[in-house]
Design a protein that fits this description.
By secondary structure, this protein is of the alpha/beta class. The protein is built from eleven helices and ten strands. α6 crosses α8 and α8 packs parallel to α9. The longest helix is centred in the last third of the chain and has 30 residues. The radius of gyration is 20 Å and the shape is globular. It starts with a strand and ends in a 21-residue tail after the last helix.
């Protein structure tokens, strides 16, 4: 079964074609990062307008690269939430129109579910290897969620961020340090030259919970940057080294916090496997620390599949269709959609 997946939940216009939920035929991503970098963050109205411009070229490019047309496609899928309402509308209305015109099945997919099923694109059968239950960490610009997965389509959110998501904090810290957007790759790049600061940044905890809270860590970074003369006046001597030291120390703290809570969830729920997804999962330190610390089988897609893409939506759609979990034609966009409400 060949499924075309469309992803427009935020600022990337992405189209992928996947066979049987695992085999990527093509995976096209048109990024808006350069457009939003001058603002230091995503402007929703700009993102929506750019999706209008890029959605048809992205679909055409995917079909051309795959040497297919719509008659070769068995079903269409699209992200219906969570995400930016305007961006989601472009994808959903385009996919729904195509499905009606071509007479194809139509599947709505939760964006978070897509990040989980990106693992299957590495030819992993999560039902058999490692088997359920699974703990899934989806860590991105909009989400830091720990999810208990008891089966296909059976999700329970067991922890999430009380304030900023990890990706948001990377972006905000990068802005304070005068680095580019998106912040995650920029902080990773400069931190290579840094040394860990003393005293170290806090590793935030939420009492009696596995939830995340990063606002205090973000504030600590801002205060340290002020004390070191890096922010808001960045004309001091040796500023590049100081920025690198702060970046490395911040990255170390946020990775420690994420790994600590996630491993705690793995042990509490006696999970058989651990899946990591979302844009922040492309971070090298995060991947390395999880590889070292995870007490069970670890599954992290390659970095290009951690960021938003259409193939992950097509993969999730295949398993939805296979397990009779598809949305109907009255599908709308749901900007605040929860993964445990998308059955």
């Amino acid at each position: 079964m060949k499924i075309l997946g469309i992803e427009t939940s935020c600022d990337d216009t992405a189209v992928g074609i996947v066979e049987d939920g695992r085999n990527i035929i093509t995976n096209i991503v048109f990024s808006q990062a350069d457009m939003h970098s001058e603002f230091g963050g995503i402007i929703p109205e700009v993102a929506s307008r750019e999706h209008i411009v890029k959605i048809v070229p992205a679909i055409n490019k995917a079909l051309t690269e795959a040497k297919m047309d719509l008659k070769d496609i068995d079903a269409l899928s699209v992200t219906c939430g969570p995400g930016l309402a305007g961006s989601l509308l472009i994808g959903v209305n385009t996919a729904k129109s195509m499905a009606i015109a071509a007479g194809l099945p139509f599947i709505g997919v939760n964006h978070i579910e897509g990040h989980i099923y990106a693992t299957c694109l590495e030819d992993v059968d999560i039902r058999e290897n490692p088997g359920f239950p699974l703990i899934s960490l989806v860590v991105s610009g909009g989400h830091t969620d720990l999810i208990l997965m008891k089966g296909h389509g059976d999700f329970q959110i067991i922890a999430r961020s009380r304030d900023d998501a990890a990706g948001e904090v990377f972006d905000k810290v990068a802005r304070v340090l005068g680095l580019g957007f998106p912040g995650g790759p920029e902080i990773q790049k400069v931190s290579v030259k840094g040394s860990l600061l003393k005293p170290e940044f806090p590793r935030p905890k939420v009492k009696n919970s596995m939830d995340f809270s990063f606002s205090g860590l973000k504030t600590s970074v801002v205060r340290r940057a002020e004390l070191m003369g890096v922010y808001p006046n960045n004309s001091i001597d040796n500023i590049d080294q100081k920025i690198a030291d702060i970046a490395k120390s911040f990255q170390d703290a946020i990775v420690d916090t994420i790994v600590r809570n996630t491993i705690g969830a793995v042990k509490k729920y006696k999970a058989k496997g651990l899946i990591i997804g979302g844009g922040v999962a492309a971070n090298k330190l995060l991947r390395d620390v999880f590889a070292k610390e995870s007490p069970i089988d670890l599954f992290i897609p390659r970095p290009s599949l951690c960021t938003d893409n259409g193939a992950m939506i097509a993969s999730a759609a295949y398993f939805r269709l296979k397990n009779n979990l598809a949305y109907q034609w009255d599908l709308d966009v749901y900007p605040s959609l929860r993964i445990d409400a998308s059955k």
